Amino acid sequence: MSLAGGRRSEEEIRPPATLVIFGASGDLTRRLLAPAIAHLNRDGAISKDFAIIGIGRSPFTDEEFRAHLDDGAREFTPPTQGRPGDLPAKVVYLAGDFAEAELFQRLKSTLEGIESRRGGARNRIFYFATPPDADETIVEQLGREELATVENGWIRAVVEKPFGHDLASGRQLNKVLLSVFPEKQIYRIDHYLGKETVQNIFVLRFANGIFEPLWNHRYIDHVQISVAESVGVGHRAGFYESAGILRDMFQNHLLQLLTLTAMEPPAAYEADAIRAEKVKVLESIRPYTEGDIDDWAVRGQYGPGVVDGRRVPGYREEPKVDPASNTPTYAAVKIAIDNWRWAGVPFYLRSGKRLGKRVTEVAIEFKGVPHRFFSKASGEMQPNVLRLHIQPDEGVSLKFGVKIPGSVLQIQPVYMDFPYARLGAPIAGGYERLLLDVTHGDQTLFIRGDEAEHAWEVLTPILDAWAKRPAPEFPNYAAGTFGPEAADRFLEKDGRRWRTL
Ligand SMILES: NC(=O)c1ccc[n+]([C@@H]2O[C@H](COP(=O)([O-])OP(=O)(O)OC[C@H]3O[C@@H](n4cnc5c(N)ncnc54)[C@H](OP(=O)(O)O)[C@@H]3O)[C@@H](O)[C@H]2O)c1
């Protein structure tokens, strides 16, 4: 893994490569890829010979496409990241439909032209910034034109989530990708894994003597993983209506956070060892049966409400949403991991749109002391909680009880806080880090094919049960709240409460 370091040649650090973006006129390219590339170029992290070929149907010239990326980089660079920097010198745009063989012939000659002018290795990154239904066509076309094999260089394919729509289509996607790219060349991207605090879960757990001995069923009561969004469905209604919260957030972000929190120490700090441990966690999750879904999962959909002082419509009133839509925009799921470390420790996962706040965190709640000799008058004894804050503010905090100064014994919870910003170093966005890892051939922070399939296996019984049973209670939470009442009762029946976000 790249965190491990080591001495490398200039070609290995900044390999000259061509990034081919399928879907280059789309939202992801402008909002997330353009700023990431401009930052990497500004910081000298990519080769001076790095080239971009964008592909989409919209009719851009090369200059217009460069201006489009430049605008995106400027508009979507957060002020904390400084000025975005220029794009690489070589930026080309090819307009066409993925179904046209002729488009891929033009791609071939453009790629070969850039590569022969550059000399040296023919390194190619194919980035699928495309709707999932386009992947198969692109892979077939790349295979037919023999674009995915080179003698002098490497080939890497970056694939965006969702990794299919369900287990069957997830398997089919893997089959299609593997028909042209070996697994070693496939980089399934989940930008959460590029976040510093997410990578810090590894370091916190495996580089500190004090946490790992406590990281098990003897000391941990339960774990809560929350990904709360204050935004609504926005312009993504077309996709979201058929996806919903489980496909959009749980199949990737939430289950990724769970596997990193729950995995065993890997044998080595490298991609396959780490990914093998993550897969073992997914394999240990107790399967749901359709009959008992209500004991393990709760769904919700937002109605109208107030977010950040602004009135917002309910999900069913959003543009392009069915006024009788049954799509869940909120879910809370309880997960049992049947292994030695986690026996009897529930993991509660929740995520929703239009919640009161944008927050992502992992909260590890420890068991109480074995014997309480402080009287009730001493104040409320609250459990110790280790919180890993992932967004918007990245950091770690630990809650513990202290005595309030004075002659009466009174206990109060206090927080030991480490905000990541205190380190002073700018925190790179997830895409920047992950794109750099692709150029270095480091798959550690990417999802392996079997991992994506196991994640679908975990969720399929819930998806099936909810698809069969409409939700007459929808909408069941107001925008600006923290989800439906049913989600509170879901934890209360286990004698627990959601943490305040
Ligand atoms: N946007 C995000 O924040 C985000 C975040 C995470 C993951 N993702 C994933 O990233 C992928 C892309 O998302 P997006 O939001 O960028 O989608 P988008 O805005 O709809 O862009 C789709 C792109 O694909 C192109 N395209 C579609 N069909 C094509 C065809 N037959 N031939 C040629 N070009 C075609 C479009 O070209 P034209 O528009 O020129 O026709 C456009 O450039 C999706 O899988 C999405 O789930 C997106």
Mean pLDDT: 93
Distance between the termini: 33 Å
Tell me the helix content. 25-40%
Q: How many separate helices?
A: 13
Which kinds of small molecule does this entry bind, naming each only once?
A: NADP nicotinamide-adenine-dinucleotide phosphate
Percent range for β-strand residues: 15-25%
Sum up the overall morphology in one term.
Answer: globular
How are the strands of the largest sheet arranged? 8-12-13-7-14-15-16-17
Biggest beta sheet summary: 8 strands, mixed
Structural class: alpha/beta
Write the layout of secondary structure elements.
Layout: H1 10-13, E1 17-22, H2 27-42, E2 51-56, H3 62-75, E3 90-95, H4 101-118, E4 123-128, H5 135-144, E5 155-160, H6 167-178, E6 186-189, H7 196-206, E7 220-228, H8 237-262, H9 271-284, H10 293-296, E8 297-300, E9 302-303, E10 305-307, E11 310-312, E12 330-335, E13 347-352, E14 359-366, E15 385-391, E16 395-403, E17 411-419, H11 430-440, H12 449-468, E18 477-478, H13 485-492
Parallel strand pairs: 1-2, 1-4, 2-3, 4-5, 5-6, 7-13, 9-18
Antiparallel strand pairs: 7-14, 8-12, 10-11, 12-13, 14-15, 15-16, 16-17
Bound molecules: NADP nicotinamide-adenine-dinucleotide phosphate (NAP).
Please give a quick description of this structure.
By secondary structure, the chain is an alpha/beta fold.
Describe the structure.
By secondary structure, this protein is α/β, with parallel strands linked by helices. Helix content is 34%, strand content 20%. The protein contains 13 helices and 18 strands. It has helices at 10-13, 27-42, 62-75, 101-118, 135-144, 167-178, 196-206, 237-262, 271-284, 293-296, 430-440, 449-468, 485-492, and strands at 17-22, 51-56, 90-95, 123-128, 155-160, 186-189, 220-228, 297-300, 302-303, 305-307, 310-312, 330-335, 347-352, 359-366, 385-391, 395-403, 411-419, 477-478. The strands form four sheets. An eight-stranded mixed sheet has the order 8-12-13-7-14-15-16-17, with helices on both faces. It has a six-stranded parallel sheet with strand order 3-2-1-4-5-6, with helices on both faces. Strands 9-18 form a two-stranded parallel ribbon. Strand 16 and strand 17 (411-419) form a beta hairpin. Bound molecules: NADP nicotinamide-adenine-dinucleotide phosphate. NADP nicotinamide-adenine-dinucleotide phosphate is lined by residues 23-28, 31, 56-58, 97-98, 129-132, 134, 160-162.
